[in-house]
Amino acid sequence: MIPAAVEALIAQFARFPGVGRRSAERMAFDLLAGGADRADTLRLAVERLSDVSLCPECGFFAEQGRCLICSQGRQDRHQLLVVERPMDVIAFEKTAGFRGLYHVLGGHLSPLKGITPDKLRLISLYARLDRGDITELILATSPSVEGDATSLYIAGQVEREGLNITRLGRGVPMGGSLEFSDAGTLRLALEGRRGLHGS
Amino acid sequence: MASPGQSRQLPGTGPGILGESTAVGIERLGLRDFRLVRTADVDLAPGANLFVGENAQGKTTVLEAVSYLARGRSFRTARDRECLASAGDEVAPVASAEARFQRHGSRRLVRAAITPSGKTFWLDGKALKTVGELWGVLPIVTFLPDDLELVRGAPAERRLLLDALLAQVDPTGLAAMQSFNAALKQRNALIRDRASAAQFDAWEAQMAHWAARLLPRRQRLIERLGACVEQHVQVLSRGAERVAVTHDTGWPAASPIPALVTDGAKASALEEPLARAWREARDADQDRLFTRHGPHRGDLSLRINNRDARVYASQGQARTLALALRLGERELLEQITGEPPVLLLDDVLGELDRQRSEHFIRLLSRDGVQSLLTATDAAPLEAELPIAARFTVTGGTVRR
Ligand SMILES: [Zn+2]
Predict the structure, then answer these.
(1) Could you count the other beta carbons within 10 Å of the beta carbon of residue B46?
(2) Which of A105, A108, A112, A126 to mutate to test the interface with B (most CBs of B within 10 A)?
(3) Which residues lie across from B28 on neighbouring strands?
(4) What residues in A contact B186, CB-CB < 8 Å?
(5) Does the complex come out with an ipTM higher than 0.90?
(6) Stated pTM of the model
(7) Which of A116, A148, A156 sits opposite B201 (nearest CB)?
(8) Is the distance from CB of B207 to CB of B184 less than 8 angstroms?
(9) CATH architecture of B25-139+339-399
(10) Is A73-195 in CATH node 3.40.1360.10?
């Protein structure tokens, strides 16, 4: 009943998080009703995504080379906040409480799923720390067993004189997600960060 | 029945009004395409509910459905797919069950749907994210024909009782147990991969963190359970037997861990020794390809007249002890939650001798205790126990 071309579009929309079959149909038919101009605008926007890559420095989304955060003159270039996913960077930027640099790991350790240290962006993290500008490393991996283990592993690898290693304070519930935490909760967790060892 | 995505409300379901009724337990139970039962809607009474029928007619299926609603799993099998009703080669796409019940003055609705690809649960119309959220909502205790395995069987049998008890009364303990198990699986993967020491350090620290929180909670629970079980054995055996129920922590006796736990060490004092114990066990664990020690190997140590009950208990002593363990589980659930759990008894009263069944029947007759019992023959039970509601189960249909 529905033309194959529209059906293909519905199937793509339905893959988005939180979008069910009904919403996907509405989106597709709305686009169809909007005429060739609207469809073209969307097509161009999607095409431009091929210009987006991961920042070679921090692993966040970037267009041409380094990302906007790395190329900006950040207030505090001595703090480095480590997160699992690019979306977590956006969550922290919304808190307006952090003015340092980021490093995106691309996930967390899970030997069970074959995610070993070499699968995360760790070599580039160590390289950044070796340059010696960073004095505080804030580990903000997800509040889960896997996130905690990942932070502990990194802390064990980079421990050195002159580098203060902290972990995000409690506040984000265990098993919760940084991405979906509100700005206030994240700000509190950031302010409540503690030394990883000895406390 | 409605598809699993829809929440079908039973008539009269809604938030309970305090004081409306003091009855505690399941009021209404519905089954659709659940193992042997095609359709059943049963109004349960407070007190003893007796399901009578020949074998393989569906009476145990009714209890099994309640087990799913209370714990997210069967007491018979780990294979959920077996719950899908079948006729010849045709297997139902969904098996579902729901119960309206009262706890702590409010009326609630729990629903379960099992499909070949998984199972989903709803509480008061809201889909649950994990089975863990179900635990403790509707506490139950099962009394089963093979409960003798609690005494004679492998540690896993007793651990299941222990874990179920903890999960129903201690959400913090349940979270610690789940986190520990998650970290343990990762360490076992490291063992298979022959991973670097740095990776072991990170995951063992996680295991130590959560085990240090789980073990003291398990210890306190076993101390309380042990006291209840010892009393029941006294009554059941008229003082003839003495039992001791203690915590086997899952470490060999030579390790410092058991003494720390039984002496009541706090989490902060346990974390370091636990991490060290796993670090030292690494090489041997790699040879055996699994984590040999830890709470996942914990057990209830049972002694009768100062000898290991697993090995030395006679048939009669083992029956007494198994029954006392279930009665202790029941009592502790009531002590901690403030309300008696629902009891599921699958064809067990016939197995007991006079002395044991008297003690049991006194308990079942107590005010406010709801039980669901199955039997092939109603007469012996009805002679001893006031039955509040009696159902006949034949060919997968349930009739009052
Ligand atoms: Zn960058």
Answers:
(1) 20
(2) A112
(3) B43, B100
(4) 109-112, 145-146, 149
(5) no
(6) 0.84
(7) A156
(8) yes
(9) 3-Layer(aba) Sandwich (3.40)
(10) yes
